[in-house]
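Question thread 4412

I'm putting together a teaching handout and wanted feedback from people who do this every day. The idea is simple: show students a protein as raw sequence, then show them the structure tokens that encode its fold, then repeat with a second protein so they can compare. Below is the first pair exactly as I plan to print it.
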Amino acid sequence: MFFERPDSGEVSILVHLKIDSEAEQEDPSEFEELALSAGAMPVDYITGSRSHPSPSHFVGSGKLEEIAAAVHAHKAELVLFNHALSPSQERNLEAHLKCRVLDRTGLILDIFAQRARSHEGKLQVELAQLRHMSTRLKRGWTHLDRQKGGIGLRGAGETQLELDQRMLGQRIKQINKLLEKVRGQRSQGRRSRERAEIATVSLVGYTNAGKSTLFNYLTDAHCYAADQLFATLDSTLRRIDLPNYGPAIIADTVGFISHLPHQLVEAFRATLEETASADLLLHVVDCADECHTENMATVTEVLTGIGANEVPQLEVFNKVDLLENTEPHIQRDSSGMPRRVWLSAVNGEGTELLQIAISELLAGGLVEATLSVPPQQSRLRSQLYEKGYIEGETVNDQGCYQLQVRLPASELERLRSSGVVLNTVTPPEVLAKSGESTESPSSAAWQSQSA
């Protein structure tokens, strides 16, 4: 029912009003991208302004006639509003325009329905759509009213509306039970990773920031990635081997958008819990987007809503290939820890810097050291190689391995307590000072330019 879509795009009229009473205005260009991402064929974009929305039709009588004329002239099948419409406004508009009307929430739900591939994703989208539809059943089935008088006309005592509401309620309960099982499976997987001491890194960010492209480059996966809003819907987890750290799990998640429908946040809570329980969040930002600051604020707002605002974050400024005089680099804070990585996921420039930054943050700081390992401890040498800690080695006259390693400070303390001889140790703050500066000239120039 929810996942059948026409093969060709539907001729659509887009409507966007500037409402003076609204503190946060919707982005008209983003709305057009949403419509194209849903497969619509926009033929007209009607704009205007009002101090307050009309209670009956959202738009005024003059604008309503303008929309009706555009629908008639283009033989449009669909009118899309870049606003949240009440059920009564939606019904009144459809009755007057003689075509289907969708608001911003319905449009986003439709895109999610098209993108859902996994069983879990389809369940979550269906739950969101059912909750949205449950408020829009009134007056849809009055011609099938079963409460009629007369001999032989008395039915089950329920109107078709009541039957539909009951069936929707039953289906919502069924989906919630299935999603509860999914939530338990995910929780069990997280506990297994915790027992194995494998860290989880979650990609978050505004939709179309390049998360899936970066995910594919880091993990050599083949997840669907496209230059469109909400190209990724189903959460994907892959193992990645980080330099000087070892294995970790990286998760690609659904992108966020301004005024993300509440139904979606609730329905995708099982998936979003992966983000809230991660050890590190990679906040991917499209640095070539003029609205990147507002988009970052939107992501932070959603993360706060799902309880993930306390998880450590590393900002990943993607698409530096679209900026002038900006090269991939790491920005560090005053303590020398990575704060932001500038890179290009489409060609892989700077991804090795990102892996180094992730390793440092997960490890709490990397140190360089020279270890002296006797021949009888060759197993320890093999373990260090497996974890990618060793950057070079020599053998002295006594047959001991002199290993040049770069590893987490906690791991070095463990080796020290096990009796391994440490010849030299370079602390993390010295390494940070010898690396990137806290601000590069190119990034500072870009920030002043974008401001």
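The second pair follows. I'd like the answer to focus on this one:
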Amino acid sequence: MLSQLPRSRWDERAAAHLLSRAGFGGTPEEISNVHAKGLERAVHDLVESGPAAYEVAPPEWAHPRDLRELRQEARMAKERGDNSKVREVRKMEGDELLDLRRWWLGWMGATPAPLVEKLTLFWHGHFATSAEKVKDGYWMWRQNDTLRRHALGNFVSLTKAMSRDPAMMIYLDLPQSRPEHPNENWARELMELFTVGIGNYTEQDVRESARAFTGYRLDLATQQSYFAPRQHDAGPKTFLGRRGNFNGDDIIDILASQPACAQFIGRKLCRYFVADEPEAALVNSVAASLRAHQFEMKPVLRELFSSNEFYADSVVRAQIKSPVQFTVETCKLLSCDLPAAPIAQNAMRQMGQVLFAPPNVKGWDGGKSWISTSTLLFRNNFANYLINGDAMLPPANRAKPGDPGLRTGARAAIAQQFPRAPIDVNKIAPPELRADPEKLVTQLSQRVFQTGAAPEDLAAFTSFLEQRNGDTNDVTVRGLLHLMMSTPDYQLT
């Protein structure tokens, strides 16, 4: 069982850790407020989100349309030798996905319920679905909405909802499954990646499960999913040692009853919120909690976020930030807006995490895979761009070929279409703070690193100011911020 964090260990460092792992970091003011609440109230407020956390206004274009008619028009035009309609549809798809990414990143930074969005991101990586195959922004938004509404709910209910989710159905070919030829893609990934993991089922179980999920269909005119009884194999099936006329929901219930399911989901939760290689005892405790609470996420996460294990010294600031975490948290700490949608999308691609386009059905590997020589250099350049805006970009015709940062010609040209001013440093470093260089370093370090910087880094920051003879003008402060965000420690949460 998880052990409760002693009250004596609930300090601002612990509060900052909670905000970072269960959300997207916090400003000094937010950390102070969470600390003042006490552990129990702080965790309660994160887990018990109000209705506003789930009733998120969609992008204006996110509504059903008759895809059958749209695609038929494009096909008929192409047959006449006119490809303009095809190009129009593809542009619409690209524009909507670009806007959808902007919309979600923006909401992550603005939400009053950061844990809901952090879990929505978790489930997006768990039930990985790519727009590259789905090719429809509305369906991707709808899946995002489903993940959010179930994020802190019941995992079994979420899995059943995902079996009926149009984007997931398309991604894993469920509408093509027929009694005479059951498609095994969804059935296989349901077990291998979504519930029990490899080694806990047989190929026969995959085949029998596929039969149970026949009859799931999509209406392209309404963009809704539905069940077609005549296309369902209602015969008896033998699955994981049980016999019955199982349907898809029955299969999911049986999978959830397997001890391997709680272990599998428990380990993924521990990897996401605690450590890349969680100890077996921690995974076992979270798995036991999942079983005890019948896969209800709120009580499980309340126990985890209140535990001594979650705040262990080996856990705090020991996890590499995902590109999403890096981007949203950096803008929060700098008190600045996200970059324009095309620049944000390019940045996420360079760092290795494009929303609504995971690399495969396994989702993102996370952990150490987030950092390489090129992605680390890009993170440093991107932080510079967020701080200094267009001031750090050369003209496109003077870009250096092969530079992995924002300075290549095409990216510089895009940036020049969407001008960005340097941040207003007075928001985070007012004149009275800048009058005391030592205090400036201390407070900015506390803000940037959430729990303060290492002594050797503090010395480097102080030396940076000394080399400028204590001149703490806007350019110097921005340079100091970039120096802080270029350190290895800033890559950690």
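Top answer:
Good format. For the second protein you could add a caption like this: The chain is about 55% helix and 5% strand. The longest helix spans residues 84-110.
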